[in-house]
Amino acid sequence: MNLNDSSLFHSQCLIGGQWVDADNGQTDNIDNPATGEIIGTVPRAGTAETARAISAAEQALPEWRARPAKERAAALRRWHDLMLTHQEDLARLMTAEQGKPLAEARGEIGFAASFLEWFAEEARRLYGDVIPSPNPANRLLVIKQPVGVCAAITPWNFPSAMIARKAGPALAAGCTIVIKPAQQTPYSALAMADLAERAGIPAGVINVVTGDAPAIGKAITDSPVVRKLTFTGSTPVGKLLMSQSAQTMKKVSMELGGNAPFIVFEDADLDKAVEGLMVAKYRNAGQTCVCANRIFVQDSVHDAFAEKFAARVAALKVGPGHKDDTQVGPLIDQRAVDKVEKQLQDAQARGGRLVCGGERLEGNFMTPSVIARATPDMLCFREETFGPMAPLFRFSTEEEAIRLANDTEFGLAAYFYTRDLGRTWRVSEALEYGMVGINNGHVSTCEAPFGGIKDSGLGREGSKYGIDDYVETKYLCMTVD
Ligand code: ADP
Known about the structure:
Layout: E1 13-15, E2 18-20, E3 27-31, E4 38-43, H1 47-66, H2 69-85, H3 87-98, H4 102-123, E5 129-131, E6 138-146, E7 149-153, H5 161-173, E8 176-180, H6 186-198, E9 206-208, H7 213-222, E10 226-232, H8 235-245, E11 251-255, E12 260-264, H9 270-282, E13 292-298, H10 299-314, H11 334-349, E14 353-356, E15 369-372, H12 379-382, E16 389-395, H13 398-406, E17 410-411, E18 413-417, H14 421-430, E19 435-438, E20 453-454, E21 457-458, E22 471-479
Parallel strand pairs: 7-8, 7-10, 8-9, 10-11, 12-13, 12-18, 13-16, 15-16, 18-19
Antiparallel strand pairs: 1-2, 3-4, 5-6, 6-22, 11-21, 14-15, 17-20
The structure holds adenosine-5'-diphosphate.
The site of adenosine-5'-diphosphate (ADP) has 14 residues, from α7 and α8.
């Protein structure tokens, strides 16, 4: 791969400051989803290597936890700076293993780094409390302490940002961490860990183990040393890891699947709604958990909206991520393409009309599609598509839109467009979702709390709330006379 600093490309795990292979020497191939070309290998590590990574994190904990927050903050800040210094290399690495257009990959590196900066700032504001006591002899205090060794299991759709959003608050709070990146995208994680070392973050504070996901996951959940598991990925795997974590009563946070409604009311600015939907639907080729999944458009503006939207979708440029004009890259693998294709076929079999796109191209590419006359009996109503397909559903009243939007077990992000103030509040309060975009198709930012309800998960990442998951609240009751 063509990198300015080729030493950022690592094919080994990082455990206790050592770059190491799997004990048995086995490896997994990592491919480029745009070409199928093998770009390298990483160790196929499992239980034993994970146990060593957990021990390394445990050994590094006392010294890291004892550092003044200001020093931990300075190290995080240096890590942030190094990510930006190496933004271009990190972006190229990401596009090669993940497929997203380079412009989006550069954007993700900036987004990832923003969490390191944010939590460097938050590290110094881990305030406790002094509580007025009902007994004059007592003083009641609350202090916040790091939970200890944490583990993060992360997905392939945001290979860097999901790590920064977890390692940032963990390190800020004084925790150490073992990271298991997605099988498809280990190189972004390993390059980040290299930069953390260069930033002066001590050996063992960050460890990265690649390989056998169920074995690594089990070693993490079974370990009483790991006090917290933070996971981003699919709902079934999240539920499995949560149940496995019950045995050791870990703190867990779960960022799981979504099934985002995108509602266009008749009083909306249609051009802005189209603009917002393009971002909410087609970013990362539709492979984000906050992607608009079901688009509800009110009767009187439905056809005008559909026409404007389909014209924009048909004009999207599909291609490999490294090409400058690409707007929609490949999907991550054939399984992802199969899923979208199945939803497209199901929708058409149930009376949906394919307005544009839907073509399966060579490799993992697919042309972005729009389906009109979508109905709630279709797979695309119930399941997260995770691909570039946009089903349009008609509705007539506000109540109906809210009912349809909430008719899912998921509750991550929702979006709606309106210019009516009363409706803005009514709908915001009625939507059973953790995040709501109002006249806005892109809500994620390090300053705001990201997370879902219902089957979309537990906990919030980013923002002033994001560090809560990495600290324990300890109450001190002191008698002073
Ligand atoms: P996706 O289907 O989008 O890949 P997953 O939930 O399968 O989503 O993957 C998210 C992360 O969970 C990845 O790092 C993956 O390797 C990991 N993972 C998958 N299955 C397990 C498991 N049984 N135990 C632990 N981690 C797992």
